[in-house]
Amino acid sequence: MSTQRAEAQVADRSVQLAPPLIQMQGIVKVYPPNVLALDDATVSFADGEIHALVGENGAGKSTLMKVLYGLVHHDRGEIRYRGRPVRFRSPGEAIAAGIGMVHQEILLINEYTVWENIVLGAEPVDRLGRIDRKRARGEVQAIIDRFHFALDPDAIVADISVAARQKVEILKLLYRDVSVLILDEPTAVLTPQEIPQLFAELRELRNEGHTILFISHRLEEVLELAERVTVLRKGRVVATLPAAQTTRSELAALMVGREVLFSSRRTPQAPGDVVFAVEGLRYEDEHGRVRLKDVHLQVRAGELVGVAGVEGNGQLELVNAITGLLQPTAGTLRVAGVDLTHAPILERRRYIAYVPQDRGRMGGSLAASVVENAIMTHHRLNPRLTRWKGLLLDRKAAHRFTDALAQRFNVSMPARAAPLRALSGGNQQKVILGRELLLECPFILLDQPTRGLDVGSIEYVHDQMLAMRRAGRGLLMISANLEEIFLLADRIVVLHRGEIVADLPVEQATVEQIGRYMLEGKA
Amino acid sequence: MARVLNAALGVLIALALGALIMLAQGYDPLASYAALFQFSLGSPYALATTFKNAVPLVLTGLSAAIAFASGPVNLGQPGQLLMGALAATIAGLYLDLPPLVMIPTLALLAMAAGALWSGLAALLRQAFGMSEFIVTLMLNIVADYFTLWAITYPFKDAAAYSPMTPPIATSGWLPEFGDWNSAVFWMLAATALMWFLLARTRPGYEWRIGGQNSLFARLGGCPVDRNFILVMLLTGALAGLAGGLLIMGGPHRFLRGLGANYAWDGVMIAIVANNSLPGVLAYGLFFAAIQTGALGMELITAVPSEIVLVLQGALVLVIVASREALHQLADRLAARRQAQRRAKQAPFLESVEQP
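Output (structure tokens, whole complex):
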């Protein structure tokens, strides 16, 4: 179903249950210097409803809620709460007005009891200004009873489960008489068995007249709990739908994007020899949790393989095992016939070009000049960039190299000596992409290569990737964007809980099928 | 350019603050400042003294700046300086070689002792993952009492009433050329050499990038663990050299309290200079100038020389704060411009959802 049609139907179906309690109108938030997190987002929440916010990572869900909670300050737009324009300068002001938020990370004092944590900062005091412990404990017990939370007020926080700690966080807000509760991915820290209990408690709160806004990316939970669902994409609200009248696949389509083309841009091409092969790759983290489970994966010359999956299903570990940031528990890695399983990073970089997902953290140094970013790795592998047995940098050669890179990859920069941060995101990515492609490695690993880029830059990156495919390189792309994978890949593999659950030629795959593999691990 | 402006602004505001404090206490700030700079820059002798006093400041400043710019948080300059001074002193007491051999030997031994002291911290970090930040700080205390013990017992000058060693052999004394002590030459040479190392060589490039973004450097194939050790050794050697030159250029013996706050001033200078090596030289000279002139100022105007500490403190705060403020201001202006652009492109009153 085309998403445009879905959007057209939004207005018809979005019948207000009650006059809106909260209206957020045209909210724009730019994180300095230039990250556009909210782009004219408009949404309203009704009194006494459970309202879910869904969207891909970076869609702006958390930022929107932090704006409402006064933790982040918006640059444009208006918030009306109970009919009045408001602008909370701090979470304290929001709580005083009756709006509270529970964050993903739980922030409690482990050595204190449950009731001490709950009253902390709002302790009842007696006439001498001493904390009235008896009254405080009694008040906490009363709230626990009223909402039927199964919790012992005298337990030490260090001794209770994560689910119970989350209840303490919620009770902290209820103790402060909050009527609007914002929950940021409340189920992320819970085990599947604990989730129904939380949902029952949230429904109880709603029945008592509270409004609950919760952020989630688990669509099945959203549809189970919420009355209405708002979908965000790239900082905009694309739809608000009654949960009873929508489906998971409609929500997924709205989250991923409009006009999903899903028509391939590749030209047919017979793949060559295997250039990249991992076999039996297994990785257990320091807590003994299995992050990668018997992963077998091959990429041939002239082939582009796309790795799909919900974030956190082993993509990071797979990438790090290839680049050498982590040493797998078992398995082998061969590139161009060379066994790199135990090779140091520099040795790997002779065979593996790597475009990481995070430009400022792994792809480059934002404080360093374009030149210094461009010559990384080349300065060790290309003898023409150094003199005196590699000890001195040849500045002129480095400048020539950078100019050639800038020209070939259309980098627009204020000056060679300008810091990387002075370039736009698209140009930063071109510097990184150019540097990696100029290494002339037989295998290219791309982790979300177009994340956070504008449409023009995305197309440019895609063109370069396809050119590399034509030139006979093997490419492995991890992407959270299914559209991108269908557009470019020859084969799609799906990672689910560290396992490859599907490996299909793109012609035989459908979006719905891949989506089911991503969410459930089976078709 | 912005950096020079920032520095000039910082110096002016710090001087103005100092003037206000002096006014409040009934002193004449103009006469005081005139005396301050007369006794630090006003005559060839004063100028040469200022330069000589800058030597330990600049060398420990280089040590801190190189460490901070490359990642390792080496805060052990005070201890490394003392160990370097002790090594030069002991060697100077027992060796007597021709000056052309003696001076480099003592300097190298001072550097080796400083590097040993920082290398210990590097080793503990590599072997046990202990933070070099804490270990170098703790080793300062060890060095403090170890050197005090050394000059109180085994190497004490029998004729002295307080802990100090006898003077080192005169062949180890740094030669003077008129008013100018040749320690100044060592300082200038070290600054130039370190600048070249950081700006023009492959290790320097890898250190700097590693300091800015260690993960990027690692993924780019730089040996980040080895670089960590190298930087720790080098910066320890620089602080050790500061201690050695302090002995060889100055009192020629290890006195109790030697080095005092030089090394901490060096750390401060590195922070004010934002780890720029030419900046370290410039601020080191400025700090030395006001410290040198302070005594003269006290003689002439009765303003206590401690006012210089106020000036230093104000300078650090003003320069660091205004640097950050300028950055944040620029970022915020950029964000606001983008928000305005977005608002123009898509007037938010015609929004998607209409109730």
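Residues 346-355 of chain B have pLDDT under 50 and may be disordered.
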